[in-house]
Structure formats: C-alpha cells, structure tokens
C-alpha cells in the first residue's frame, strides 16, 4: 500500500505541476505550509440515493451536494451566516419579506451565470408535486407564500412567493414572520437549479459529465456503492481560495472496517463506533474528537388509541423515564462524549437554554426511588408487572441502548420490556401507523433554532408519531412564531413535556470521529455539521 | 460444504441390498473409526454444555454487570473471581451464559432445520418415487425448478420485510435444504418399491400411503441419517451468515453466529475472548458433525477402504 | 444432448416467472415501501411518485408490464431509490465486479483444492495428509465474516501490503483479499471431496492392475485416476457456485467492492423492489446456467451418462 500511495502522490504531483495553476505553498490566511497532496478522502456509511439538491433527504448526499452547489447563504465554521451566491440581504420589519442581492460573478460549471431565476426555478421545483421531492415539506416549513398549497396540488408552482426582480435581485415573501429565515437558505433544498440542463437531460442530469453545478466542486466520478469523486470547479466565483483539489467519498458499510482502513491511512475521516472513543482518544489524542451535533435521542410512548392503556397514566411514563440512568448510557455504553438529557431540544441549539427541569436536579437514587413509588401508585408491582414492547431500528448502538434500558427497568422496577428490532423502512411504517408501544426516535435539527425540535410535539406535526396532544403546547408554539424572543415559550413547552413525559429523552448527540491531523479547517463548532471542503486544507507533514 | 449427492446415493443403493444385518456391521465399523468416535464424544459434550451449562453460570444471559459496563477490555476479562468464566460481551453481559444460550439456539436451528428438511424431503421423494409415471415427472421437474431459486436471497428478503422471527428462520433454512433430500429419497424409493415385501403389501390391498410410511421410509433410514448429519453443520453455518447480516434472533437471545460476529467486530479492541470462546464451540461442533457424518457414511458403505 | 440442453433451458422460464411473482407478492405485502420516510410524504407528492413508477396501476398490470419489459427489451426498469439510475445500470456496475473476483475465486478453489486433495490421497496417513485434512476442515468451518477482518488486520493494518477494501477498477491489489476470503472454504471442501474420491479410485481394480504392470505413479495418477475421481467434485460445483454467490454478500459488504451482493442487501433494506427483482432474476438465471454446465461437464467426463 505504501508503494501504491507513492505512485498516486507522484502522479498527482505531476498533474498539479503541469495542468493546475501554481498553488501557493502556504495557506493565504494562516501561513501554514501546505501539503503537495491536496486531497481529502472520507468514509460514508451508504450510497446516496441522489445528488439532486431538491430531492436529497439524507446526510451522505447532503454533504456532497453542499460541495457541488451553493445556496444564497452559507455557514462558516462556527455556524454563523456568511454570504454565498447572495452578497447581502435585507429583511422587512415584520420579517416577512426578504430581498437577496446576488453576486454578479457567480457561474454554473458550464459558464452560465447564476441568476435569480435559477433560485425561483429551484424552489418551485422543490415544492412542485410533479418533482415528487421527499423534502418538499421543507418548503412548507419556510412558510414561503403558497408553498403549502403548491405541495398539496391546490395551486400552480408559479404562484410561489418568490420573485426575480432582476437577474441579481431575489425577493421572497413569507406567510409567517421568520427572523431565522436566511439561516434556512443554507439548506440544500433551497439551492438553485439549472432549468436548461434539467429539462434537457431529465433524471440523468445528476450523473458525472452531465451535472452542471455552481459550487466549489464538480462531480467527476461515481462508482455506485464504492465511491464518488469531486474535483475543483474552475468556474466557481471563489475558486482561487479553494485549496483541496479532490474529495473522495468511499462507501464502507462496516464501521469497524472503516476504522481499520482509517488506521491503515486509506481514509482521512471516519466516525468512531460506539464505545470505542475513550480507547482511541487515549491512543490517538490528536485524531479522535467528539463535538456536539444537533440531534436528540429519545423514546416515544404511543399515546394514541392504539397505545397500551398503562401509558395513558402519566405516573407510568414518569416512572419509566426516571428509572433510566442516562449517565450510564452516555458514559459507559456510548462513551463518545454525548450529553445525558432530560429535555428534548439539543442543549447546543442557538439561543436555547436548558430550562430548569426538576427531575434533572435529583440524584439517580432519588429518581429510582420516586419511580418505584409512582409505578406502585399506578398499580403495578411484583404480582402485576408492567409489560410492553420497545421497538428500535437495526443498529448496534440502538440495540445496546435498548438492552441497557430494558435491564434498568427490569432490575429497578421489575418491568418486562420486550425488544423488537426492525429494519428502517418497516420501523418507519409501523411507527408512522402507531403500531408500537414504545419506540425509539431521534431528530436532527433542520436549522439551528429550537422550533426545529419543538414543532414535532405539536399535534399537527407529521413526525409526532406518539400522538402527544396538548393544546397548550400547540398554542405556545403557534405564538412563538411571531415573537421577537420566543425562548420563554420554548422553555414552557419543555417544562410541560418534563411534566407530561410524552417522550423519554435519553441524550443529545455528539459526533465522535477520527480525522487526519494534517487536515485543517474542519468546522468543529458547527453544530449542524455543515462542512464545506473548500474551507479545508491539508498542511505539510 | 454440501454432502455429495452421488456418494450418498451409492450408499443407499448398497444398503438396500444388504438388509438388516447391516446395522450391526455398521455399528462395529463406526466404532472402529477413531475420528468419528471422538466427534461423537465431543458432540455429546457440547449437547451437555447446552443443556446443563446454565446451572453453572454465575450470571444470567441478559443481566448486565454494571461494574464492567464501559470498561470491558479491563474489567470484563475471563475470570473466576467475577464469575465471568468466559469474560463479558461489550455490554457487560456474561459471555459464558450467553455462549450456553447461543449454543442452544444454534443447535436447535441445525436440528429443527434438518428435521424440516428430512420430513418434507423424505415424504416428497418417497411419494414421487413410489407413484412414478407422470406424478413423478411433475414432482421432480418442480424440484428442478425450485433448485434454481436463489433461496438465501429470498430468505434475506423475507427476514428484512417481515422482521426477524425464529420460526421463519427455522423453517426458512429447513426449506432451503429439502430439495436434495427429496432427490436422494426418490432414487432410493425406486429401488425399494420393486422388492417382494412391497409387492406383497400391494397384493394384500394395503393403501399406498400406508405402504410408503410403513414399508418404504424405514428402508430409507440409513441414507436419511447420513444426509441429516451432514446437513446440520451446514444449517448452523447458514444461521451464522444470517446473523452476520443482523437478521438472526432477537435480543436478549443470541446464537453462535451473532456472538462470533460481535466478537469479530471487536477483534482489534482488546477483547479477543469475545471472538474466541464462541468460535471455539462453533468450530469443534462443526468439526465433530463432519467427522461423525463421514464416519457414518464409511460405516454404512459396504466398500471397505 | 442438444435436446437435453434445450429442455433444461426451458425450465428457466417457470423459475424466472416464479421469482417475479414471489417478488411482487412480497412487494405488495410488505409494510413500508421505498418511499416511506421519516415524515410522511404529502398525498399529492405520493400520488405523483406512484404515477411515475407505475405503482398506481392494478397489481396484475404492474406484473404484466414488468414481464413484458424484461422479455421484450431486457429492461428491468428504473431503480426506486436511486433517482438517476436504472436497474440495468446498477447490475452493469455491480455484476462485473462480482463476476471478476467470483470467477477467480472459483478457479483458485478448484485448482488448489484438487491439488491439495490429490496430494493428501497419494500421501495417505502421512503428516502431509493429516496437515492437508486439518487445514481443509479448519478452513471449511471458519466463517468468512471472521476470515475477512483477520485478513484486513494482518495484510492492511499490520503489514501494509494490500488495501483493506474498495475495488479501484479491479486493480490486482484490491482483488487478492476478497478472493482469499471467498475461496478458502470452497477450496477446503473440494480438497476433502477430491481426497476421498481419489482414495476410492486408487483402490479400484483397474488402478491395481496399472500398478502391477509397473506404470509410474505420476502416469497412474494423471492418466488414469484423476479423471474418474473428478466426478464427485463436478457434482459439487453447482452447489459451490450457489454458495459463492451467497458468500459474495459478505465479501461485498465487508470489502465495499461495489459488487452485486452489496447492492442486493442495500436494496432489500431500502425496499428498492425493482433492483431486488433484477438481481434475483439474474442470479436465478445464472444458477440454472451453472447447474447445466456442471451436468454437461459430468456427461463429458463420465461416458456412461446419457441424457
């Protein structure tokens, strides 16, 4: 392998010295010496279903699309909003009309200028039922005028509240007041689309060679289920500041195989399998890192009519939640620096502060004692044990957590929880139809604001699979939309949830990963993990 | 990996000729074969382990040792002090108890799967062979067709779609294997059905199905036993493959395949015992079945090597 | 013989029909489909998707259209999951990979297995024999999902000689580990079968006669004993092929070669029915072909057999 690598590197060096523009040997800002080998190879779990920005619905494809395309705004390494295709924007006083000023030097990879009309087309396309985008709901979330009706097929896509005032001015009108709307434009669903190319090539337009994109990279190679390669886009407006020449995503299904290949220097980045972080941190302190990630892990009770009678009793729900020792799960099972949680919204969400939740302050011994008491009050005991099924989707760490939870309940409360393991699609179907008793859930923020989490527990949410229904929560969330500072409402919703316990919060995610120390510029502080290869570089070793 | 059909058929043909005294001869020949006897002995030990192993366990197979959880590489080592004779798995559960339980499941998959295969295959083959003619040709043509279906893939599909279920697993692996059985049995039936005792039964008006059950199948016993012995280890291997895909039994239950797979994933993390103990039982059992199967075949084979 | 081959090829038709129908039944019966996602899709979007893939048609029409597509155009339809790919393209990208390392494994397993078996038989009851038998039984029972990580640990991480996965357009470095992991257990089986059948042949009268006539051992083995002792090996080739196809799932998943096994498992998990069906049909057709080849080979070696 060493031999192989030398060949690759020297071949690359030749290519660089002849074809590519002469590279600065130093980083323009930091002055670090740069490596001759400006490549970045990372591991992905699965093959992406599509690279069409309006159709992407998962992170593997999303990460690639973020390199290939560029939206109105981008995020920097800390998650702050920075200009993308738009140089600047203005918002109306009521935060309902946003006007974006697009830069004039933005180009598609075929040389066409990126114009406001490309965004109009992209957004209409995302909402148009004919496009059949699984992420159409994101358009609804933005509350752009008529988006919801377009998705429902009641209005034509052209009626959307987005207008190109001229080629470089874009006006967006919302139905609700959303101060954080510009943050949402960093999401891939709201990227521009090139109508000419898509009309000409149809579904084939996302293949390497066909694809026309406006980001810092272009797709140059794709071998399904093995790898995809993207390389510098010479047409990109900020091309001169792009340092990484070539980014390769390798599909490695087995996380332990991925780790071995990381250690053998075949990939520069891979996530750490659950439970192995402490050992790796000790052995490779410069390479193993754990940073917060905007996702929340929980179990949801089925509170609908099809749910078990026992779960309708709030004491039972509280008892089950109290008896879970979250520290054990986080420190002894996952061991990746996750945060034990007693509330739903991820604690690192921008502007959000963890509310005071009473049972979070107690010691675990107190919680256990209280749990026993509550369960006894609810009429369950040794001669009448509580029995239910807990359901999770297939994954080693979900299995570990479920096993540990079931044992905690069994040993502390005498509760008999049977585990059911299902494949993702079956799991979603069963959970979506309320065919469960207790089910695992996890939610990742689509934007960095607490409502991305808390909207889920409103009675109208499509993801409220437990069918928790509390009018007060609905009112608070509806009200929060128009508030200058909605945080007090979020706090109240969290407190109601701590009391009513429709879900058992378990932990807030981190992402624990191994990264080659020569690779710099990884956005450690960006909780949404919005990383852009053009912000990264490899220093000389 | 698969018993050779040709050899088994040869045995069957020879056996039918020799008749009853064969069994005494065979027993003597079998016990002269040291490897086969050793295999039988080992199998006995493994079965005892599966049945009585749990009475010696200090922990149950699902109980988590909280003091070990999170520090398995150090605190979870095999040790008599902690009661974890085989160490613990990565969740701090006693590996000894889990190995006992995994042994039960894996042996059961092998045995029940083989029984399904033997039952379906014998009946099917005997019926086809006995009735002959068009029935035979339709039934055997169906077997030819079914043989070309990539069963393992269909089974994967079933387990993915309808969820993991131990019954589906048992039946699934069994149904994959009855086809070979039915071919062998049919061939054997063809030679048996022209014997005098069958003709006598027909003449006295015994019903065909009674003839098949009373007179034909007992004469197929030798070949069925050999085939079943060689089939069991293959079914255990298939179960391990299913477990590798994560489609095996549900937690907290486990099987050899699931344990080995978990151990193999953690191979490089300083917990090698998680692989070695289950793998040891898996390998000696498969070895033993192969030895016993070979021994049986040699014993029932009239050609003296 | 021609009639026999023709008749056998005819059985392919019902097999493939059965596979198509089974797949369709599973597809209609399964909970969750390819378009199930965390948030339920808006009804209008769902309708548009169903229309796009023809899922709004009556069941019989879907089956009929599919069969017509396969028979007349050799078209397995679009993938339900991968938006810009057809099933034909997925098979075209995965199948050559599996075929390459699969056929190399097959050849390796047969060559090494037969040689090992012959040597063990000639040197019966010497340490060479015991060694060969021991190794082959050991190799036969070691699951390939244990073998694969061991190989990667040793040859990739410790020695740094070979890449731990990927296909890389079929570079020889990437082929070695998959071939070793896949072929070993079949090699072992073949060695065991060869040994016992060789022993049997060596004890027959015509070989004894040859020996008595003073022919050299090499001549006896290669001229007279090898061919008849290959019969059981050949009848094992069909099952071995099926086993290898199954084993390639493990190899593909562990080494991320992008082969057909990986595509199969992923499409089963994703409910990509059209891909599942395409791959299952392909494998069914291959199995029929391999069994047929084995039978022809058998007839060629054993002149007593007539079809």
Report the uncertain regions of chain B.
1-10
Biggest β-sheet of chain B: count, sense, barrel? none
Q: Count all strands of chain B and give the number.
A: 0
Largest interface: A-C, 55 and 56 residues
Overall pLDDT metric of chain A: 89
Please provide the count of β strands of chain A: 19
Structural class of chain A, by secondary structure, is alpha+beta
Counted by DSSP, the helix tally of chain B is 13
Task: Give helix and strand order of chain B, one letter per element, not per position.
Answer: HHHHHHHHHHHHH
Number of helices of chain A: 18
Quaternary: heterotrimer
How far is it from the N-terminal to the C-terminal residue of chain A, by CA? 19 Å
Question: What is the CA-based Rg of chain B, rounded?
Answer: 22 Å
Beginning-to-end CA distance, first to last residue of chain B: 23 Å
Write structural notes for this entry.
The complex is a heterotrimer of chains A (541), B (305) and C (307). In chain A, helix 10 packs antiparallel against helix 13 (364-377) and helix 17 (471-480) runs antiparallel to helix 18. Helix content of chain A is 31%, strand content 20%. The relative contact order of chain A is 0.14. Chain A starts with a helix and ends with a strand. Chain A contains 18 helices and 19 strands. In chain A, strands 11, 12, 13, 14, 15, 16 and 17 form a seven-stranded mixed beta sheet that branches. In chain A, strands 1-10-9-8 form a four-stranded mixed beta sheet, covered by helices on one side. Chain B has 305 residues and is mainly α. Residues 1-10 of chain B have low confidence and may be disordered. Chain B has helices at residues 5-18, 21-32, 34-52, 72-75, 95-131, 133-147, 151-162, 166-192, 196-203, 208-216, 221-244, 256-265, 273-300. Chain C has 307 residues and is an all-alpha fold. Helix content of chain C is 77%, strand content 0%. The longest helix of chain C has 36 residues, at 87-122. The model of chain C has no long low-confidence stretch (mean pLDDT 85). The chains are: A alpha+beta (541), B mainly alpha (305), C mainly alpha (307). Chains in contact: A-B, A-C, B-C. At the A-B interface, helix 8, helix 11, helix 14 and strand 15 of A face loops of B.
């Amino acid at each position: 392998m060493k031999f192989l690598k030398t060949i690759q590197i020297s071949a690359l060096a030749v290519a660089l010295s002849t074809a590519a523009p002469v590279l600065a040997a130093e980083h323009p800002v930091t002055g670090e010496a740069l490596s001759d080998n400006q490549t970045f190879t990372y591991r992905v779990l699965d093959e992406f279903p599509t690279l069409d920005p309006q159709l992407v619905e998962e992170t593997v494809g999303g990460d690639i699309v973020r390199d290939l395309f560029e939206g109105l705004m981008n995020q920097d390494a800390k998650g702050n909003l920075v200009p993308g295709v738009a140089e600047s924007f203005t918002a109306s006083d009521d935060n309902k009309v946003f006007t974006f000023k697009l830069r004039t030097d933005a180009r598609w990879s075929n040389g066409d200028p990126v114009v406001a009309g490309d965004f109009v087309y992209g957004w209409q396309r995302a909402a148009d039922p004919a496009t059949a985008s699984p992420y159409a709901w994101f358009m609804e979330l933005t509350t752009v005028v008529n988006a919801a009706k377009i998705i429902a097929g009641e209005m034509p896509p052209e009626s959307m509240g987005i207008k190109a005032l001229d080629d470089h001015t874009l006006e967006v009108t919302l139905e609700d007041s959303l101060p954080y709307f510009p943050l949402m434009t960093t999401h891939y669903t709201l990227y521009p689309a090139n109508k000419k190319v898509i009309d000409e090539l149809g579904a084939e337009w996302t293949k390497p060679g066909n694809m026309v994109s406006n980001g810092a990279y272009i797709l140059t190679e794709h071998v399904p289920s093995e790898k995809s390669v993207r390389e510098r886009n010479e047409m990109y407006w900020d091309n001169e500041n792009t340092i990484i020449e070539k980014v390769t995503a390798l599909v490695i299904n087995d996380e332990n195989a991925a780790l071995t290949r990381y250690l053998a220097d075949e990939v520069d980045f891979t996530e750490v399998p659950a439970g192995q972080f402490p050992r790796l941190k000790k052995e490779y302190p410069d390479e193993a890192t754990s940073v917060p990630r905007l996702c929340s892990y929980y179990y949801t009770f089925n509170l609908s009519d099809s749910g078990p009678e026992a779960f309708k009793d709030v004491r039972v729900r509280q008892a089950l939640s109290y008896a879970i020792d979250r520290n054990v799960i986080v420190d002894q099972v996952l061991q990746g620096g996750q945060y034990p949680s007693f509330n739903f919204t991820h604690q690192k969400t921008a502007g959000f502060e963890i509310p005071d939740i009473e049972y979070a302050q107690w010691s675990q011994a107190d919680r256990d004692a209280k749990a026993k008491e509550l369960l006894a009050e609810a009429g369950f005991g040794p001669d009448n044990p509580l029995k239910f099924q807990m359901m999770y989707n297939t994954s080693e760490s979900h299995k570990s957590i479920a096993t540990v939870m079931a044992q905690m309940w069994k040993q502390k409360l005498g509760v008999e929880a049977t585990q059911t393991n299902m494949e993702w699609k079956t799991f979603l179907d069963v959970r979506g139809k309320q065919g469960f008793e207790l089910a695992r859930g996890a939610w990742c923020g689509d934007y960095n604001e607490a409502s991305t989490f808390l909207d889920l527990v409103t009675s109208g949410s499509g993801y409220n699979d437990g069918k928790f229904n509390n009018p007060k929560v609905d009112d608070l969330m509806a009200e929060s939309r128009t508030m200058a500072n909605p945080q007090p409402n979020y706090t109240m919703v969290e407190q109601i949830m701590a009391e009513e316990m429709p879900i058992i919060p378990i932990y807030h995610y981190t992402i624990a990963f191994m990264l080659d120390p020569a690779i710099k510029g990884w956005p450690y502080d960006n909780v949404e993990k919005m990383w852009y290869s053009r912000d990264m570089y490899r220093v000389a070793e | 990996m698969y018993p050779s059909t040709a050899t088994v058929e040869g045995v069957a043909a020879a056996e039918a000729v020799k008749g009853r005294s064969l069994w005494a001869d065979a027993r003597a020949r079998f016990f002269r074969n040291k490897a086969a006897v050793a295999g039988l002995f080992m199998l006995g030990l493994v079965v005892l382990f599966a049945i009585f192993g749990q009475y010696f366990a200090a922990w149950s197979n699902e109980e988590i040792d909280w003091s070990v959880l999170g520090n398995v590489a150090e605190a979870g080592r095999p040790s008599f002090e902690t009661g974890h004779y085989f160490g613990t798995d990565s969740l701090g559960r006693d590996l000894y108890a889990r190995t006992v339980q995994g042994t039960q499941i894996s042996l059961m998959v092998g045995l029940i799967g083989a029984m399904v295969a033997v039952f379906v295959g014998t009946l099917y083959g005997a019926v086809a062979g006995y009735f002959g003619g068009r029935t035979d040709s339709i039934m055997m043509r169906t077997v030819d067709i079914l043989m070309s279906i990539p069963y393992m893939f269909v089974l994967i599909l079933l387990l993915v779609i309808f969820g993991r279920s131990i019954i589906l697993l048992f039946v699934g692996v069994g149904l994959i294997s009855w086809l070979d059985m039915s071919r062998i049995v049919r061939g054997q039936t063809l030679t048996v059905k022209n014997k005098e005792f069958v003709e006598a039964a027909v003449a006295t008006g015994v019903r065909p199905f009674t003839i098949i059950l009373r007179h034909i199948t007992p004469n197929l016993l030798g070949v069925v036993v050999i085939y079943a012995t060689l089939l069991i280890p293959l079914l255990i291997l298939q179960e391990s493959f299913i477990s590798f895909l994560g489609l095996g039994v549900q937690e907290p239950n486990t099987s050899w395949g699931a344990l080995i797979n978990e151990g193999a994933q953690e191979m490089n993390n300083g917990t090698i015992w998680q692989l070695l103990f289950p793998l040891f039982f898996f390998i000696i059992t498969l070895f033993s079945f192969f030895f016993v199967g070979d021994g049986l075949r040699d014993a029932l084979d009239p050609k003296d090597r | 013989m021609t009639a026999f081959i023709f008749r056998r090829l005819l059985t392919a038709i019902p097999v493939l029909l059965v596979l198509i129908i089974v797949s369709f039944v599973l597809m209609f019966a399964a909970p969750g489909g390819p378009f199930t996602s965390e948030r339920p899709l808006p009804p209008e979007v769902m309708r548009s998707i169903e229309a796009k893939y023809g899922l709004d048609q009556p069941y019989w029409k879907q089956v009929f259209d599919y069969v017509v597509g396969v028979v007349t155009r050799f078209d397995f339809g679009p993938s339900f999951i991968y938006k810009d790919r057809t099933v034909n393209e997925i098979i075209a990208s995965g199948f050559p990979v599996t075929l390459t390392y699969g056929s190399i494994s097959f050849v390796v397993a047969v060559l090494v297995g037969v040689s090992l078996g012959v040597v063990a038989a000639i040197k019966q009851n010497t340490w060479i024999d015991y060694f060969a038998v021991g190794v082959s039984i050991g190799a036969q029972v070691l699951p390939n999902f244990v073998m694969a990580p061991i190989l990667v640990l040793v040859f990739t991480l410790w020695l740094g000689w070979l890449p731990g996965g990927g296909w890389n357009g079929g570079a020889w470095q990437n082929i070695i580990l998959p071939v070793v992991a896949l072929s070993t257990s079949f090699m072992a089986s073949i060695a065991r079968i060869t040994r016992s059948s060789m022993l049997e042949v060596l004890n027959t009268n015509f070989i004894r006669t040859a020996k008595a006539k003073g022919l050299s051992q090499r001549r006896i083995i290669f001229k007279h004993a090898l061919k008849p002792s290959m019969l059981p090996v050949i009848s094992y080739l069909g099952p071995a092929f099926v086993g290898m196809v199954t084993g390639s799932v493990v190899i593909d998943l562990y080494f991320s070669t992008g082969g057909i096994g990986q595509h199969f498992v992923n499409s089963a998990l994703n409910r990509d029915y059209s891909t599942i069906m395409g791959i299952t049909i392909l494998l069914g057709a291959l199995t029929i072909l391999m069994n047929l080849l084995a039978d022809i080979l058998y007839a060629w070696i054993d002149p007593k057999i007539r079809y």
